[in-house]
Amino acid sequence: MFVSRTARRRTSLTLGTVGLAAGALTAGFITTASPASAATSTVTLTVNGVSTSVSTSADVVSELLTQQSVPFDSTDLVSPGLKADVFNGMAVSWTPAKRVLVRRAGETTAYRVVGNTVRDVRDELSLPTATTQKFARFEAHRYKMTRFYSAAGKRLSATDPVREDYRAVVHNVRVAYPEGQKRIERRVVKDRSKLVRSGGKRVYREGRNGRKHVTYRKVFIDGDVQSKRVVKSRVVKDANRRVVRIGTGPNWRALARCESGGNPNAVNPAGYYGLYQFSLSTWHAVGGRGNPTDFGYWEQTKRAWILFKGSGRSPWPYCGRFL
Length: 323
What we know:
With 323 residues, the protein is of the alpha+beta class. It folds into 4 domains: 41-95, Ubiquitin-like (UB roll) (Roll), CATH 3.10.20.30; 98-176, Beta-grasp domain (Ubiquitin-like (UB roll)), CATH 3.10.20.30; 179-243, Resuscitation-promoting factor rpfb fold (Single Sheet); 250-322, Orthogonal Bundle (Lysozyme). It has 6 helices and 16 strands. The strands form 4 sheets. Strands 5, 6, 7, 8, 9, 12 and 13 form a 7-stranded mixed sheet that branches. Strands 2-1-4-3 form a 4-stranded mixed sheet, with helices on one face. Strand 15 and strand 16 (272-273) form a beta hairpin. It starts with a helix and ends in a 12-residue tail after the last helix.
């Protein structure tokens, strides 16, 4: 059968088109069958306070931590959670749990905690703090409080960090207000005096200790006295100062020893009296009243000093050389 040139061309074009279509189908099938590259996410990972940016193909947070070799377990603090889905741009944080030993009523229990400071851990474990309850003034009371210690035994403050195997001790506290007597110590006053020989000293006034009634505040921790201080006091007897005079004057003791044997009540039948054997007229002339024997050392020596200032050693012709 005869086929024209035009028909032959159409047939050739048709076959070519079918061939191209078949090739396109074949190429499309091969492309679809090729393996796709795995999807990745960029995550900010904070491990125990240190943040880094990581790329991960993990689907959930637990898988992410495993990929990053983070040694997590169920007691650790993980945000937003081990089962949370991972997505691009998310933030994940991990804080490891620490073992803390809590001792109360004589027994020690181990806990896993994630708090960073003493205050955090105390709140996390609901451990007792010092009481905030109001009591009447001087009212005895009891309460519990918790103290934290490092592994080496150092006592910690509320803001100190908590590390592995730190200890918390719950103490029983008792506050009491006993009463009692307390001595008021006399003060000692020293002054310089011409009525005492130079280089010597003599008690002018003995003075006395006083006494006061006091109320104490005593704090017992686990039965042992922790502190004691006075919170109220009332003076029962005043204290008087002890006065000691330091000598800068003549040797009165030697003069008195020579004149009267050191006896303030000595009487000479010739009409001389006291330590320094005053005549009554001389005694009155230097301001004395009555008889020298009516007075003690200080008054007699005061009048002798007045006499000495005015007349020197002459009133004591023999014994004056000892001054």
